[in-house]
Amino acid sequence: MIALTHKPIEVQKVIQAATADAAGAVTTFIGTVRNQTAGKNVVRLEYEAYEPMAVSEIQKIIAQARERWALTGWAVEHRTGVLLPGEIAVVVSVSTPHRKDSFTACQYVIDQLKETVPIWKREFFDDGDQWVSAHP
Amino acid sequence: MNVKIKTFGISRDILGGREVAIDLSGTSVGDLRKQLNSQFPELIKLNSLFIAVNLEYASDEVLIQEKDEIALIPPVSGG
């Protein structure tokens, strides 16, 4: 399952989608909204995605992961729209026959997602806002 | 050639719309990049700017057709 959603992510559903009878391990990464950036209070975040390309880029990452590890299941769900501190922004879940691979593959998927998937985060502070990573 | 450019993140603030029409004088992604940089110099200050053609990251050599779906991809920050 690969999905973008405006609604709160149901973690259990993502895990369920990644689980398989051939799996001996399921690793799940949950990315949440932090309440501060460089000492400034974060009031809220807004995520936007170039949805069709985001889905196809996530598909590519999963395909790369499947070449490197024997994934028995996978699921990635990313939230869009307005999020408040503490809310879940992304869930990545992968399953493999043995635990070591599931940790490594899960980390690979979230690391790559942050590099290549066209999703943008705007941070709103008490006194302004910024698109994350836009400028040096 | 008239092309429509989808904009996201900070590139939407810089170009001033979700979809911006550009009268492209060249033919390639590199030509479009040059034209955008001179029309919207704020783009040059970004950490990076990729251009996607038909949902794929495109290098400067890629040729553009009028019907292509073109999008600006400023530094991504998902997760």
Explain what you see.
- The complex is a heterodimer of chains A (about 140) and B (about 80).
- In chain A, strands 3, 4, 6, 8 and 9 form a five-stranded antiparallel sheet that branches. A four-stranded mixed sheet of chain A has the order 1-5-7-2, with helices on both faces.
- Chain A has one domain (about 1-125): Aldehyde Oxidoreductase, domain 3.
- The mean pLDDT of chain A is about 95.
- Chain A is elongated and about 50 Å long.
- Chain A is built from three helices and nine strands, in the order E-H-E-E-E-H-E-E-E-H-E-E.
- Chain A is α+β, with helices and mostly antiparallel strands.
- The N and C termini of chain B lie far apart (about 35 Å).
- Chain B is α+β, with helices and mostly antiparallel strands.
- A five-stranded mixed sheet of chain B has the order 2-1-5-3-4.
- In chain B, strand 3 (about 50-55) and strand 4 (about 55-60) form a beta hairpin.
- Chain B has a single domain, classed as Ubiquitin-like (UB roll) (Roll).
- The chains are: A alpha+beta (about 140), B alpha+beta (about 80).
- At the A-B interface, strand 4, helix 2, helix 3 and strand 8 of A face helix 1 of B.
